[in-house]
Amino acid sequence: MRRSLGEHVFDASNAVFLILLSLVTLYPFFYVLIASLSDPAWIMQVRGLIWYPKGFNLEAYRLVFLNPSISTGYLNTLLYVVLGTALNILMTSFGAYALSRQNVMWKNQVMFLIVFTMFFNGGLIPTYLLIHDLGMVNTRWALIIPTAMSAYNLIIMRTSFLSVPVSLEESAKLDGANDFTVLFRVILPLSMPVVAVMILFYGVAHWNSWFSALIYLRTRELYPLQLILREILITSSTESMMTSVGGADKTPIGETIKYATIIVATGPILLLYPFLQKYFVKGVMIGSIKG
């Protein structure tokens, strides 16, 4: 079927619009990358858009990686992401499996209570008092246990589990499988796209989390990377990284340190996303459409 002139114009307009939208979205990150690799004095003077690094300089990255707070924050963030995401997937899988089975009593009422928490919660002060009374303030568990399960992600995974034929579960139980065997050997292997989406959702949330650490943590050795990044960007606390820099150069190198820290903090999660992207749309669609 031949396409009309209007359809070609419409497709071309969409392509131009999406290209411009992509440039607007990507340029801020590109600017930060170029600024982190450029001469600090030039960055302080330049105004407007920049498209290439001038006076290629890796001194900011050297100072960032020599900073013990950055390395400690990296290790803490990796620990929070791995432990937190593993607990999130486990708890969400258990909840989704229980609420997707046909013979579970009061599952609709329990689902209503879970959805209710998406609209109403106790607030910051009651939550802090609860964490304090549980003895988790200034501990790593304060960043892992309270966020063990997301109601929104539970709904997506539950809907995905509902799409698995009941006959598979029945045949597995006829062979002597219990609920744990059905979940880990039948349901989850058939739901890997939605599991990948859950890993992406939970992993990015843990990686970007800083507010909970700001509220519950007191010891700097427990700080995640994002809280260290916040200190550098908002309070301009770059003095500890500039001990080897001359006094006249401290201000410009301090600016490029901020840019380099942003790249170091966001780079890993940006590199991970392409490997999970192919599961993203498929997993969300499986979790949102039942049939």
UniProtKB/TrEMBL annotation:
Its main location: membrane. Residues 74-274 form the ABC transmembrane type-1 domain. Keywords: Cell membrane, Membrane, Transmembrane, Transmembrane helix, Transport. The chain crosses the membrane at residues 12-34, 78-99, 111-131, 143-161, 182-204, 257-276. Gene3D superfamilies: MetI-like. It is a multi-pass membrane protein. It is found in: Cell membrane. Pfam families: BPD_transp_1. The keyword Transport applies. Belongs to the binding-protein-dependent transport system permease family. This is Carbohydrate ABC transporter permease.
